[in-house]
Structure prediction request, 198 residues.
Amino acid sequence: AEHVQYNTKTYQATARGHVLLDVDTQHITADSADFNVQSGEGVFDHVHGEVTMEHRPNSNMLVSPNPLVFEAQQVRRLDARTYMIEHAWLTVCEQDKPNWKFYAPHATLHVDRTVALVNADFRMFRIPLLYIPYASLPAGRKLRQSGLLIPEFGDTSVKGVVIGDGYYWAPRDWTDLDLGAAYLSRRGWQQNAQFRAK
Prediction:
C-alpha cells in the first residue's frame, strides 16, 4: 500500500492507497484496508478481486481457465478461505469485457468450494434477465455441484402453460442425474428423470 500503520501489540495494520493482498490463489486490490496480520481477518473497501480456481483436467467437459473475478464496495475476510462480499458483481467471463455477470448485494465466497449469492440477478450485457433469491455456484476443483435447478416457465401451443423445476444430482465427475417435475396445463403433472454417464 502507499501508507501503512502497524500496531505490533495488536498485529493490526491499517493501509491506504493501492492496497494489494496476494495469498495463494487470491489476489485483492483495494482503496483501503484494516487487516490483522496474525488472524488473517480484515476489511477491504472498493475492491477488485480475483480467485484462480484450480480445476482438475477432464476430457469430457470444457472448462474455462478464467478466474472468478469480482468488484465490490466492501469485502470482509473472515479467514484464509472465507470472504463476505457486499454490493458486488461476479463473473468467470473474460475480464476485459465480460458479457455476463451476477450482481448481488451479498455473497459469500468459500475459496476452492462455492460462491453463495443472496438476492442476485443475472445480467447479459448489463441487462437484468433473471432474479435469483439464492444461488450457489462452484468455485473450486469440483466442477459439478448437486442442487435445485432454475425453475422453468413457458407457454406453448402444443403443451400449454408449462411450470417446472428439477434437482441436479452429481455424485461423481463422470455421471449426473436430473430429476424433474412439470405442470402442463393441458396434461396435468408430468415427471421425468434423465441419467447421463460421461
Summary: The radius of gyration is 21 Å. The CA atoms of residues 164 and 182 lie 4 Å apart.
